[in-house]
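Summary for the steering committee. The consortium agreed at its last meeting that each partner would contribute one worked example illustrating the joint modelling workflow. Our contribution is presented below. We chose a case with several input lines so that the handling of multiple components could be demonstrated. No manual editing was applied between input and output; the record is shown as generated.
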Amino acid sequence: MGNRTLTRMDLAEAVFRTVGLSRNESAQLVESVLTHVSDALVRGESVKISSFGTFNVRNKAARIGRNPKTGEEVPISPRRVLTFRPSQLMKERVAEGNRRRG
Amino acid sequence: MIRSELVQKIADENPHLYQRDVERIVSAVFEEIIEALARGDRVELRGFGAFSVKKRDARIGRNPRTGESVQVEEKHVPFFKTGKLLRDRLNGKQGGQ
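What follows is the complete predicted structure of the assembly.
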């Protein structure tokens, strides 16, 4: 506890425990959730999951960057980046759960 | 897109499931992520991104209204890093799939 990395398999297991579906179908449903969220973001929509958080797509303008090793200037083209803003509830639960621990 | 629209899309693709069960499935996915982070675990979803917990050190804050110094305790906050595939897709590169 505290240093584990969960994967799709663990989310599928959580779905499997919740509803009486096969493990295989549970895994497919986890994939559907991720695919629909990704597709909406790629369309440029924000995705707001109540009591979890909001994913936003932000447009970044072009700028001149610098290779930190060589000091050389390199153009950075305009791009879209994804930001995640956790809900108040998620922030509280994560803060509470990790209080007074490593 | 909001939670109910996500549920609807998945319900439409799975006519053999009750809408109520689809709601429980979607909730289970997000709930599991929150529980993992609350335990201090991380959740890595290849292609999509990774959720982790970052520690913010204790610091001396300031009440912006009164200017008074206040001790802010160390705290842990959720953090999300976008996966490579999704980052590429956001920028019009097909990648993977």
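Residues 12 and 26 of chain A are 5 Å apart (CA to CA). Chain A touches chain B through 56 residues (CB under 8 Å).
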